[in-house]
Target: Dihydroorotate dehydrogenase
Amino acid sequence: MQMSKAVDMSVTVAGVELRSPVLAASGTFGYGVEFDDIIDMDRIGGFITKGLSREPMAGNAAPRIIETAAGMINAIGLQNMGVKAFAAEKMPKLRKLADAVVIANIFGFTVEDCIEVIHVLNDTPGIVMYELNASCPNTSHGGMVFGTDPELLGDLVSRCKVVAKRPLMVKLSPNVTNIAGMARVAEAAGADALSLVNTFLSLAIDVETRRPRIANVTGGLSGPAIKPIAVRMVHDSSRAVKIPVVGMGGIVRAEDVVEFMLAGATAVEVGTASYADPRAVETISTGLRKWCAAHEIEQVRSLTGAMLS
Ligand SMILES: Cc1cc2nc3c(=O)[nH]c(=O)nc-3n(C[C@H](O)[C@H](O)[C@H](O)COP(=O)(O)O)c2cc1C
Model:
């Protein structure tokens, strides 16, 4: 029987070589430690931690996650243990997992908050990259979301880039009309890579009680419902910049990854799918390898930007 050639699954994002383009998305994979017994870490490209803030945060009141027709709405409120506890309690365990590739997700309500988080992480070994979440409100500017205002975004990225001792990937908000413009702003401010999309602002109402189904009233929509919009945004952004784009939004199977890569993504993240199946990231990564083998694709990176018009 003729053996098919091994597929080269490696991709490089901002100088960091990943053994697979399939990563676990922030907020859907805990701090990574929780998934060690569930997933073979060496079968996935890596994972992005839950968002880390300067101080611990309790998050929003329940209900804060609901299912929708093709995805879910969440308003977790960025609950996390705080960056110092993460560095002291979780990172030593993660460093013992030889195959874990850790990307730390950072957020803050002021630029200074983000810088403080980066300082703590700079002194923490075992992290390959930072993902800066630009989708949270800047409290010093009346709550205007960093990622929806070009000036705030440029300021955030340039000031974080100066202090970051690791590559800085900027996660863009999709709640804008001109995503390519925001991608250019982040690149010009020094981003080493972009990731998109975060969740779409949304609202669901219980028609019997006439109340919002999420206690916070609005929340972020994720899952298959957002995939075609996310693919379009990855397409537009990747054509607007030279830095790599990491795509996400509704990926549930290998073919979805191929679609994002054809649109211009160098790598992808899988979020909501892990709620339905905690092994989803590994299954999708393995499925991608098989898909490439079946389509005689020797290097997965050859898919990036290869959409035909
Ligand atoms: C429950 C939940 C929590 C999330 N928390 C974060 C977070 O802390 N930081 C962040 O940048 N994105 C967060 N996200 C957004 C995801 O990382 C991802 O961008 C989004 O869900 C779209 O991908 P998906 O459709 O595969 O879930 C969260 C998403 C969900 C569903």
Notes: The first helix runs from residue 83 to 96. Residues 11-59+77-201+221-303 form a domain with the TIM Barrel fold (CATH 3.20.20.70).
